[in-house]
Structures are given as structure tokens and as C-alpha cells.
Amino acid sequence: MSATSPLVAAMRQWRHTLSKEERWCILIVADPDALAAAMALKRIMQHRVKAVDIMRVNEVTRPDNLAMIRYLHIPVKAWQPEKAASYDRFAVVDSQPHHHVSLKDIPFSLVIDHHPLPPEPYEGAQLYDVRPDVGATCSMMTRYLQGLRITPAPLLATAMLYGIRTDTAAFERSGGEDDFRAYQWLSRYADTAILRRILRSEYLREWLPLFSRAFRSLVDCRGAGAQAWLNDVSSSDLLVAVADFFTRVHGLRWIAVSGIVAKNTVVVIFRGDGSRDIGRMADACFYDVGSAGGHRRLARAEFPLSAVPEGMKPQEFVLRRLQTRKLRAITARPATPESGTEAAAAEKTAPAALPAATADAVAEKAADSKTTRKAAPARRLRERPRRSTPAPDSHGGRSSADEESEREND
Ligand SMILES: [Mn+2]
């Protein structure tokens, strides 16, 4: 066994200090890795304390995360700060106290996480294990379960598997030896049918009317593309969900799904199969009315409703632009941020001020995830920057990887 053995020893020691008198609260910024790691910690503490509650400090809105909570019976509740006094001790997993306002003033006895180390060391925790080199907190928790000789029940194993899968984007974005091994071990105990069901939970019921609008409004566009107009939507994430759906249709070279967000902004989400540079196309169609751009397969444009000429319907305007605009010369295109720092900085800015591609990527990842509390490493933005030489990538083998790593949250 490896360098983690002292950590397991520390965990064992910590477990001996638990008291039947104490009520524990595990606080998380809920995402799959955090939810599953909290379940694992609760399992480790089982029967050794009076009570363990799992509390989330954020909202869960993504359909896959909601499905995870429902199908795996994760007993997570919304954190109410005024109830803090009813707990004796606190733990945080997959986050650190400085990551979230609701966490920062709580005296944690246990911190287990895989995000970067804090600027100043955290004092006061009996068990403190922060290892930024690990792909998921669930991989760390797996090692603890193994060390304590705890066999995970199917629902716990499934949750942890999903946690690792999500944080590493199924090992495409990150993940090392520890994560692989943990994944392999957990697979023996997990329920793959439930896992598949969670992975397939991509839409919410209330989105279905949008799909019907999309199908009804679908019109063919030049170059084997199509466009759909959804009218008013509550968030551009919904346009993204609908556009992503259409990427499953073989023979549809590109799709543009558009609608009006917040009553005054027209957003167009582009998806393409890579046969043409969709980022260039978005730019060509809308650069003069707002912000537009993206990558070869993913792009976005947004502009104020007021940019639509008097007497013209916005959907007509979008369609006309899609049909008639010619591509601009490559040199005229604005730069796309490529470094992680730029992207991280961009996350804090208002979406309208962002280069479109970044805004898109951020919006998609933001849902329940914790993009704002950690700097995005450069490897997160692994889609090919649109300024790179258009490669003959249809046989690259990574063709669908880009989109997939975007859909998955982290
Ligand atoms: Mn994580």
C-alpha cells in the first residue's frame, strides 16, 4: 500500500474519537462528487455518533444531479444557518471553508477535499486531508473505505462512481492512478442500471414544452443545418439543452437554437458536427449586433432585442442572418481567451461582457457546480480554440469528447 496509509491511520484514529453524544453536520456545495463523498463519510461515522446530517449550501437544479439524489436516496437537506447551534461538530467534504460564504465562519473538525490548498493553512480540524492532485474527493473516500474495511452498499458505490466520473469527465479531463483504481474497485459494488439512469437524466419535465416548440419551429438552413426558435426562455441553459439534443441527429450538420432571455436579449446557441467552423459562422452572422463566436463545434451569439430592425420579428431576423451572412476573413476574427486565468477571470464578469465562447462554456458548467470558487485550470477548456488551424478532425477520435466534457458538470 502506498503513501495513503498514514492517512488511513489518521482516519482510524479520528474515528475512535467520535462520541455517541455528538450530532454531526456534513456541509457540502452540492455536486455529484460532494454528495457521494458526504454519503461515504456518513457511512464511516455510522453508529458511532448520535446523528449525521448532510446539508447543502447551494441549490441543486441540474436534472442529472436531481436524479442522483432521488435514485440513490441521498438524504441531503438545504442548510439553514440558524440551525447551526443544534450541531456539536461540522465536517466539510469536496470543498474548503474559504470556498463559500456559508462555510467560512464554521469551525470544522474535518476537512477532506481535492481542490487547491488554501492561501493560509486551516487551523482547528482534527482531520485535515486536502490533496489537489487527486481527481475527485470520492477517490480519497474510497481509499478510506478500503482502509477501514468497509464494503460500500450498492447505492453508495454508485454515488461514488458517479462522483468520480463527473469530476474527471469520465477520465477525459483529469484523473490519475488513484482515481482509476478507486473507480475500478467501486465498479464491483455499484448498480450500473441506476448509474445509466442518472446519466440519461438530462432534461426536466418542465422543459418538455420547449422541445415541442423547438420541433414545431425547426426549419432547414443552408449547408444541411437547421434552426429552431424557442421565444421566451428563463435561461440560456435551456437553449443549450435543446441544442445539445439535436447534436444526436445524424446528418444534421449544425443547429442554431435561439430565444429571448430576460425579455431583452436574443441568445443563439450553435452546435455543429465539426464539418464547418461553427464559431466562425456565429461570428459572421452576428458580430455586428452583439457578441458572437466560439469553437469549431460550439458557439454562441447574443445581442439586444433592440438590434432587431423595426417591424421585423426577432426569429425572422435570426433566420435571415443565418441564411444570408457570408463568412468574414479569418484575420478579422476577435481573439478567444485560451488560458485558464483569462477564463477564470471571465467567470466573475457579467456574461454580456464575455467573449461569447467563454460565456457559453461557463453557463453550461455553472449550473450546480462550483466554478466560481476555484480557478479553472487551463485543461478545463479543452475544446480546440477556434483560432487554431482547422484540423481534419473528423477522424480524430476525440470528436465527441469536447461536447461531452462540457455537458458534464464538475
Ligand atoms: Mn470534487
Characterization of this structure:
This protein has 2 domains: 5-200, Alpha-Beta Complex (inorganic pyrophosphatase (n-terminal core)), CATH 3.90.1640.10; 208-407, Diaminopimelate Epimerase, Chain A, domain 1. Helix content is 36%, strand content 17%. The chain has helices at residues 5-16, 32-45, 63-71, 137-147, 154-167, 177-187, 192-200, 208-217, 236-246, 278-286, 314-324, 340-347, 356-366, 401-407; strands spanning 23-28, 51-56, 76-78, 89-93, 108-113, 127-130, 219-221, 225-233, 254-261, 265-272, 291-294, 298-304. It starts with a helix and ends with a helix. The chain binds manganese (II) ion (MN).
Write the layout of secondary structure elements.
Blueprint (H helix, E strand, L loop, with lengths): L4 H12 L6 E6 L3 H14 L5 E6 L6 H9 L4 E3 L10 E5 L14 E6 L13 E4 L6 H11 L6 H14 L9 H11 L4 H9 L7 H10 L1 E3 L3 E9 L2 H11 L7 E8 L3 E8 L5 H9 L4 E4 L3 E7 L9 H11 L15 H8 L8 H11 L34 H7 L3
Parallel strand pairs: 1-2, 1-4, 2-3, 4-5, 5-6, 8-9
Antiparallel strand pairs: 7-8, 9-10, 10-12, 11-12
The chain binds manganese (II) ion.
